[in-house]
Amino acid sequence: MKHYLQHDPWNIVEEGFHRDFNEVTESVMSLGNGRLGGRGSFEEKYSGKTMLGNYVAGVYYPDKTRVGWWKNGYPQYFAKVLNAANWIGIDIDIEYETLDLNHCEVRDFRRVLNMEEGYLERSFVARLKSGKEVQVNAKRFCSIVDDEAGAIRYAIKPLNFDAKITITPYIDGDIRNRDANYDETFWDEVRKETAYGEAYIELRTRKTGFHVATGMCVSIEQDGLSIDYQSQPIKYEKYVANRITLDCRQGQETVVYKYAVNLSSLNYDPDTIIKEAHQYIQRITRKGFDKMLFEQKQAWADKWKMNDIVIDGDIAAQQGIRFTIFQLNQTYTGEDERLNIGPKGFTGEKYGGSTYWDTEAYCLPFYLSTADQKVARNLLIYRYKQLGKAIENAQKLGFRAGAALYPMVTMNGEECHNEWEITFEEIHRNGAIAYAIYDYVRYTGDEQYLVDYGLEVLISISRFWSQRVNWSKSKEQYVMLGVTGPNEYENNVNNNWYTNYIAAWTLRYTTEAVAKVKALNPEKYAELIDRIHFREEKELATARQIIDKMYLPQDDQLGVFLQQEGFLDKDLMPVSDIPKGQRPINQHWSWDRILRSCFIKQADVLQGLYFFEDEFDVDTLRRNFDFYEPMTVHESSLSPCVHSIQASKLGMKEKAYEMYLRTARLDLDDYNNDTEDGCHITSMAGTWLAVVKGFGGLRVEDEKLVLSPYCPDNWQALAFKIRFRDMLVQVTTTQRDVTVQNFSTMPITINLHDKDVTIKAESQKTISSKVTA
Amino acid sequence: MKHYLQHDPWNIVEEGFHRDFNEVTESVMSLGNGRLGGRGSFEEKYSGKTMLGNYVAGVYYPDKTRVGWWKNGYPQYFAKVLNAANWIGIDIDIEYETLDLNHCEVRDFRRVLNMEEGYLERSFVARLKSGKEVQVNAKRFCSIVDDEAGAIRYAIKPLNFDAKITITPYIDGDIRNRDANYDETFWDEVRKETAYGEAYIELRTRKTGFHVATGMCVSIEQDGLSIDYQSQPIKYEKYVANRITLDCRQGQETVVYKYAVNLSSLNYDPDTIIKEAHQYIQRITRKGFDKMLFEQKQAWADKWKMNDIVIDGDIAAQQGIRFTIFQLNQTYTGEDERLNIGPKGFTGEKYGGSTYWDTEAYCLPFYLSTADQKVARNLLIYRYKQLGKAIENAQKLGFRAGAALYPMVTMNGEECHNEWEITFEEIHRNGAIAYAIYDYVRYTGDEQYLVDYGLEVLISISRFWSQRVNWSKSKEQYVMLGVTGPNEYENNVNNNWYTNYIAAWTLRYTTEAVAKVKALNPEKYAELIDRIHFREEKELATARQIIDKMYLPQDDQLGVFLQQEGFLDKDLMPVSDIPKGQRPINQHWSWDRILRSCFIKQADVLQGLYFFEDEFDVDTLRRNFDFYEPMTVHESSLSPCVHSIQASKLGMKEKAYEMYLRTARLDLDDYNNDTEDGCHITSMAGTWLAVVKGFGGLRVEDEKLVLSPYCPDNWQALAFKIRFRDMLVQVTTTQRDVTVQNFSTMPITINLHDKDVTIKAESQKTISSKVTA
User: Fold this and answer.
1) pLDDT band for position A353 (50/70/90)?
2) Which residues in chain B are closer than 8 Å to A566, comparing Cβ atoms?
3) Which residue from A minimizes the CA distance to B592?
4) Nearest one of B198, B196, B199 to B231, comparing CA atoms
5) Spatial contact of B200 and B213, defined as CB atoms under 8 Å apart
6) Beta-strand (E) ranges in B206-352?
């Protein structure tokens, strides 16, 4: 835990330079716009602790797999998010000294991520070894309007000298991934160009052959006026720059504007990509920094108008939830169905791949409630487009006849993870992908999606489940052997309740979806079943058999579902019995000890009761919660949110708040001591869920929005905005009452604290508060 | 399967050069003497497929661990058998051409491993590109008399030309392990020296700092007479040689004798090791090649006298069993308690480490019955000396109070394997180490071993088991969760019958051993328990509780023990149902598919019934054999031998023979297509077991030798020699009768086919044959 960042409702503030935590700050202060982004590093050279990271969405490299011991079925390559050309760099040399905060006295340092307006600002005074003092103010953003561009305003002022200052804005493409398995370089240079104040470089990824053109243009002001300058172009291998030497007077501010673009061959023809970069640069340079920043602020204001959450009376919580919303919006905008939500977004490169089950299980509801319907739809389309690869993936593992197993981690649809207990056995991900279709249709009412895309995915996943179970003669039921559930602190278990349940549920939902699509569009249905050789009668009969006879382990005496068969053989004890100094257990215990202990990384049974809550009564939830919560160590950042939601539902306000706190400031306080690798982007969605589904009680039932909001004890008010179909509503809950404001031009009816309430167009209604007990 | 090697009772013969199989032949024709050894490669340069390998026992390098995903508890380093300086090399240049069989026409090629006398011989005629033809005859051995030396006789004769021939005997220390994780070099040069016809190089391993001095001396004969020659010394980095150019006439044979030594700092002071090498070289050079080879033949004759097995009527089987005995003797001589039996011996470097549970479970009985008692005893002492490391190893995994977990793979007592499901969970190895003590004491009657060493190891292992089980409230029994049994096609299972059984057995045997040692030597006992803080009453009470209440899964209806809990949930089917072309399944199926299938790599339950056969009746064995055998794919080379022994016991002669055949010629026929990596040294002991314990029915009961030999149907006779305490007996069994010859100077009483039979000193007795039904 670290507490060096200031609490502030709209900004993340580092006051004074915290060298040792610089990589943490860089992660937290990352910028992104869905297409490109990078860490909050310095523009000028910094020889201290830093991890430079600039990323271009959708551009990846298949790094050769590294294993200790090969297991049949492992992928040969592992697609990685690529650290790309550094476009932010501006070297500063003052006579014979390089400005490098690692070798200066630094004062008045302040680095601020402005979340309201979407930019990063940094100012400081540096005293060089020679005694010269300079004041710097740098401002940078990745534009969400011109979403392949970024811009920097870098102002430097000599405080106690006159001198020649050399300013070298550059693009450096000689970049490696810190997590490269064999220290390989992933980029080759294709070409480079320099011109007066401009420089371009085109790089190509090895193997995958993506082209990325990065360009920059520099303009300079002194005394508030644009000036002409002498510029010396520099070209090295994978590096282009302009070296500009200026006479600077004491007290005079020199302002460098650096405009940059990153175009990738995902969107441009490689033959003309440098030309396009040139034109793009010209366009944004003409627009200018101030106009770009103005548009950025406007665009962010529009976003906040749709999805801000206001917490009254707890500034740390306010900051945490805004950080969550800000980062999720920076990571994924839903413009492009080829992109997805990487676990680190644009804030780091660890874990490779861009897509985990996190997207469907945690992130989808956020985008459903805060963005246009097409955003969530594009997340589903992403998987639809990768169905072919999922079928190939299942074939590699011995499945047949169109069965699909989506990969655990992917970039382009191919599996890119290689731990057998995860890659091959954490198959519950397939269930989450089916569930996301259900969740989307339930929320949006867009049944046409089933016709056009959804049913095909559901049938393919159902085929997998039908083949993955086997009939146990000894139980006279279907069993599923050798799986790893969401609780990754158990591996290769038999009859994981969550996985068995979601498998049977998928078969059930597929059966319903078949009926629905048949009714909605018999021609399209006929075309589909012909194309994918769906033998309706036979396959649905098998599905029904499995649904009827699926083994779901439970203990009648305790009245709980068993995480997996045999769970009660463990030495059961609460987390509070773990000796001091041994947590997190994953940093203190060997893997076998974790596996045979009763301790749970994230509780799968509770995850299942969250997904399928309509199918269980509250007493069942309470018994399972009381049984599993005390054994859960929450060493997955995806864990506490579900517990918080469940605790809210059970009226356990304190527990709900405690669980909410576990993720609310995970990265801001570097809770797990790993934020330096990047932020936990997908688990941020969990924080949002804890607030909106937990405290807010958001649900959809029978095509209707359901809310049962309450305000945690130490907050004065909580207000959140959500979209639901054609509506935009704001829910404000205090300790006394709840106000729902309808921004729509039509009256709406919602279920509020178990009662139907109608709110007129563009008006609001307040009722007294009630906590579900 | 390959059948290019000739069948011959005493020799392994390659007739004609089989280029594509050269690495297989090199493995099979490896030479060793317990201290050094290497693969059957060529002396002269060979640019084709070859894997050069020369090894010095006990010299290893801790290679940095490579993993895909780190798990807490993995060792940082992984000790590897080191490929050491190449001392066999002799380059031959004929005018401007290098003799390289990869670029010649080769005829009359013949490579023979003479197992009776312990040397490798190779002859051929090569026609160079120029048309020149030379005839070569090379003979090489690793001396078991001068066991740090090897010698080569390399004879070359021009067949159709007179020319200058340049002969360059060399030592090359610029050697890397093919399996190095990061392509690192493990050796540094310390010094090198050359003199007339001599050359020395001293290398040091990085990190571990072992010194190895390798020296050579060359003498040359022409026309049968030793000649003086001009020699040009050559020194490169890590390389020393003497270049000798001779005038050779058509038809004249030039014979090069190369004497070499490898001294290691395990046995010599690094300060004087080069000097020692020099003296050693002088001594053997004075002795001369012919005398050395004569002594070698004598020494091998002595060995064969003690442990030969004669199979009459099946030359392939005869060759197979002699190959087994030959390789086991080449690998381990029991002279040095710091050494052990690597899985590849001196025939390759794969798998790293030198010691697996193979030593205790499979190899020990071979050495017990074929060598002096001290050989087996040294294998036990090896583990005793590593007890401290085993306790540290257990501590790393969270165990306390002197509990010991021996590593899965080791060189110096530290774990050097890193698959969690094996390293942390294949803990049954600890049981095998306890069992070996029992096996040794039972066979030799050496109860003093328990006093001096055995009990301390037993108590430490028992402490591990006592902590590793936990009480299941739901079963009201002790359970053992999260283990991998000998059947590695199941991972992380609960209540593996074999592991639970051997754990309870260890506790039982430890309790008995405590009583025995107390009775034999109360002072030593008191000293021991004080030193290791053994709280006798408390620890034995715990042990008794666990023995009484250990859960051992079984199915009463089928009357079988269950490999692990839940085994009957699997889709049970015989191996014969696996579709054609999908075997071995480990090359065709993904790991998860293997795990959830019913197919067994090696059957743990049958292994347990083999170890503890006195505790089960034959009907129990038969039911379990009939249940498990059909599901066993025998994809471990350690598997078939146990099935063969059990089948023999059950009177299933055909099955016993079928299983015997699976290992009998494993490497000679390259059964699994992997002999090129080296021979399966430890599983060779299994072949011997199948013959002596299976066909021979060798057991020890109540201090008495028990035999119930029979002769497989297609053999005319089987004769094997064994030692038992003071006796040396030969058992000869034909289809009609059994003859036991007593070579001892005392009468002996043995149990032969369930009857006590006394045989007078130095005489024999024949009884009519009977097969146990």
Assistant:
1) low
2) 481, 494, 565-566
3) A424
4) B196
5) yes
6) 211-222, 225-227, 231-236, 239-248, 254-264, 309-312
Please give the Cα distance from A54 to A84 (Å, whole number): 5
Q: Is A512 helix (H, G, I), strand (E, B) or coil?
A: helix
Three-class SS of residue A122? strand
- What one-letter code names the amino acid at A310? V
Identify the helix (H) or strand (E) that includes residue B649. helix B639-649
Other C-beta atoms closer than 10 Å to the C-beta of A743 total 17
Q: Could you tell me if residue B185 is inside a domain?
A: yes
The total of other beta-carbon atoms located within 10 Å of residue B215's CB is 29
Give the distance from residue B68's alpha carbon to the nearest chain A alpha carbon, in angstroms. 4
Pairing mode of beta strands A737-742, A748-752: unpaired
Q: Of how many residues is chain B composed?
A: 773
Instruction: Flag whether A585 is in a domain.
Output: no
Instruction: Say if CB A342 and CB A354 are below 8 A apart.
Output: yes
Q: In sequence order, what are the residues at sequence separation of 6 or more whose Cβ sits closer than 8 angstroms to the Cβ of residue A242?
A: A168, A169, A170, A194, A196, A197, A198, A199, A218, A231, A232, A233, A234
CA of A175: how far to CAs of A65, A205, A208, B240, in Å? 20, 11, 17, 43
Choose among A398, A492, A493: nearest Cβ to B590: A398
Going across the sheet that includes A90-94, the strands are: A97-98, A90-94, A163-172, A239-248, A231-236
> What is the rounded average pLDDT for all residues in chain B?
95
Q: Is residue B180 part of a domain?
A: yes
pLDDT digits (tens, 9 = 90+) for B416-454: 888 999 999 999 999 999 999 999 999 999 999 999 999
- CATH number of the domain bearing residue A274: 2.70.98.40
Q: Identify the domain containing residue A175 by its residue range.
A: 31-95+144-305
> In a 3-state reduction of DSSP, which class is residue B99?
coil
Using the beta-carbon criterion (under 8 Å), do B588 and A72 form an inter-chain contact? yes
Q: Do A72 and B470 touch (CB under 8 A)?
A: no
Question: Could you say which of B473, B571, B587 has the minimum Cβ distance to residue A72?
Answer: B587
Q: Please state the pTM of the whole predicted model.
A: 0.93
Residues of chain A in contact with residue B397, where contact means CB-CB under 8 angstroms, are 590, 592-593
Q: Do residues A463 and A471 touch, judged by C-beta distance below 8 A?
A: no
Q: Across the interface, which of A65, A67, A420 has its CB nearest the CB of B592?
A: A420
Inter-residue contact B276 to B268 (CB < 8 Å): yes
Where is A387: in which H helix or E strand? helix A387-396
DSSP state of A629: G
How far is the C-alpha of B150 from the C-alpha of B84, rounded, in Å?
Answer: 14
The span from the CA of B656 to the CA of B649, in Å, is 9
DSSP state, residue A617: -
pLDDT band of B180, cuts 50, 70, 90: confident
**What kind and span of H or E run contains B700?**
strand B699-701
Domain tally for chain B?
1
Write the pLDDT tens digit of every residue in A445-478. 999 999 999 999 999 999 999 999 999 999 999 9
Cα distances from A693 to residues A451, A615, A719, B147, in angstroms, run 29, 18, 13, 77
* Annotated binding-site members of A: 357-358, 601-602
The answer to whether residue A488 is catalytic is yes
Residue A322 included in any domain: no
Rounded CA separation B498/A200 (Å): 67
CA dist B144 and B292 (Å) reads 10
Residue B211 forms beta bridges with which residues? B204
CA distance B218 to B256: 7
Catalytic annotation, pick one of A44, A117, A488, A490: A488
Average pLDDT of chain A, as a whole number: 95
For CA atoms B706, B708, B709, B712, give the dihedral sign.
Answer: negative
Angstrom distance (rounded) from CA A247 to CA B34: 79
Annotation: binding site of B for substrate: 357-358, 601-602
Place of tokens 């009527």: B313
Amino acid identity of residue A698, one-letter, is: L
CB contact under 8 A, A595 and B73: no
